[in-house]
Amino acid sequence: MTSDDLLAVKDLKKYFPMRKGLFAKPRIGAQAVAGVSFAIKKGESFGLVGESGCGKTTLARLILRLIRPTAGRITFDGIDITHISRKAMRPLRHRMQIIFQDPYGSLDPRFRAASVVTEPLAARHRMSKAQRRQEAARLLIKVGLNAQDMLKYPHEFSGGQRQRLGIARALSVQPDLVVADEPVSALDVSVQAQIINLLTDLKESFNLTYLFISHDLNIVEYLCDRIAVMYLGRIVELAPKSIFRSSPRHPYTQMLLDAVPRPNPHLPIETDVREEETPNPFDPHPPSGCGFHPRCPYMQNRCRVNSPSLIEADKDHYVACYR
User: Could you write out the DSSP letters of every residue in 168-222?
Assistant: First the structure.
């Protein structure tokens, strides 16, 4: 970790215990995160993409210390937070916030918008009730809502407005790191563009650092400075967005790019990926060696045995592939 890094994870792992029966002893089961390492610089937007079930959300929960890692190290602004207690973690909570995927499920339906935004302020700052309401009104206006919306309940907002409310809540405690876990996937396309532009503007206004998780490569390329591709709990490629689409090195990254819809319906779909099913992440015996080898058209014998390490193939371009 360098002085410019806000967050760094090293060989981070998370295994969830599984049982075969109600009274059976738990055993090591799902390998949700299997040795992930990367760093995010202060003020950077870092994108994380991959198929459902690859471990993206679990990795985000580990970084926020919502769950404990099985192994590895998490460093936030020079502080090792891997195994610190809940009490020691509390002063750092306000510095790392999350924007959830479901803008309705993440809001308490019993709370008005004012309470949604002021509750974190009451827990963090010694402010009067009038000061908290004034700050809530300022934040609502900042995210594109009206001050009069403070009296509304979540069900009275549209989907895009609810996500704006969730963003205001995340910003209320002045965080340094914001984890955006697919924040636009549940919204209409037109609303998606509005929220993405809002996040871009807020990044500059509040000097934020983003960890942006998404399935949509176009959105990630637009918003993020660097992009990491995750497959079966591992990062298989990491590159600046300027060369991510033009020079993909890993076959899985090529598959994701080939799957992006193109505006010309007459263009043929070109992919060399095999038709084998995606391995089950809950399988207690995942594929040996490289997890992608059952689907890879360039598979070599050593791919079945040893898992390749993430190495620097070009400047700032890291790939986990023997090819």
Answer: HHHHTT--SEEEEESTTTTS-HHHHHHHHHHHHHHHHHHT-EEEEEES-HHHHHH
